[in-house]
Amino acid sequence: MNIILLGLKCVRSIGLLVAIGVLSISSIVGQEPSKPESVDKSGTQKTEASSRTEKNVPKPSFSLSVKTKPILNLSLKAEKARLSEIAAEMAKRLKVQVFVGDSLKDEIISMEFSELTLEPAMQLMAPAVYIDYEIDSGSGMPKPLGIFFYGSNQGEPPLTAVIPGSSQSLLIEGDTEDGVEPQTEEQKKKQEEQPLRVHFEDNSISVKAKKQPLPLVLLKIGEELGIPVDIQFDTKDVVDAEITKLSIEDAIRSLSPNIRFFLRANLTHAERRALRLVLTDPTKSAQQGL
Question: CATH: 3.30.160.40, 3.20.20.70, 3.55.50.30, 3.90.1150.10. Which one for 72-150?
Fold first, then answer.
């Protein structure tokens, strides 16, 4: 009897151990393996991509600075930059037409200058440089209209490249001896007594006018300089003055505040050439803000 009871206890113990073992195995089999924590690489990838993009973007080959106060001045730092690209940026900043000659379209330049005024700065840019200006005789500084960067053998730009208008007034005189040097004392005296005399030599102009109409004086100056004159205003102003060997700019300013004067500066040869004279209507000029 005791033997039987002992056998039953042993069987129960073995069954209990088997049950516990089965449960343990089931628990292990049912449990999913732990996954490694996911790492967000998007931030790192973006940083690396941004870094690669910045490396691939070429740095600008030049930097240009334009200041207008207290006077117009430019600064440029260029390292193997195209002249045509610099010219395009200058046109945008200065609000002026800038032309590059055919021989310089692919010109590569390297240079650096700081806070130079317009003409000294432009003179460094090309073998031949021209600037066309408009001067309002009643205001201050000349206004640049066009800048030309040309090769040394290209020749001069067309005179009408940026100068507006094509109309011209004509001067008709009856004295056929104009332009002929006086030979006798009587002829010299007669010439001295003329109410209007204009003489241009060595880039200086002399004007002697005795109560002469302003339009007539301007037409006479245009004839002497060989440039067109446009009389847009029938003024009654008269000129009673004697101007001796002044620059064209200074002489024109002294005659009237209602004159627009166009000239070309040849920076390579340090020459300034008159291109056109316009006598404007002061009422229209005020309305247009000229």
Answer: 3.55.50.30
Which residue type is seen at 52?
R
- Residue 251 CA to residue 217 CA, distance in Å, equals 12
Nearest CA among 269, 260, 282 for reference residue 143? 260
Residues in the chain: 290
> Please, what sign has the CA dihedral across residues 140, 146, 147, 151?
negative
pLDDT above 90 covers a percentage of the chain that reads 59
The residue type at 64 = L
CA torsion, ordered 129, 135, 140, 144, to nearest 10 deg: -30
pTM of the model: 0.72
For 173-224, how does the pLDDT look when each residue is reduced to its tens digit (9 = 90+)? 545 445 556 567 665 666 667 899 999 999 899 999 999 999 999 999 999 9
d(CA 140, CA 138): 7
Q: What's phi and psi for 74, nearest 5 deg?
A: -130, 150
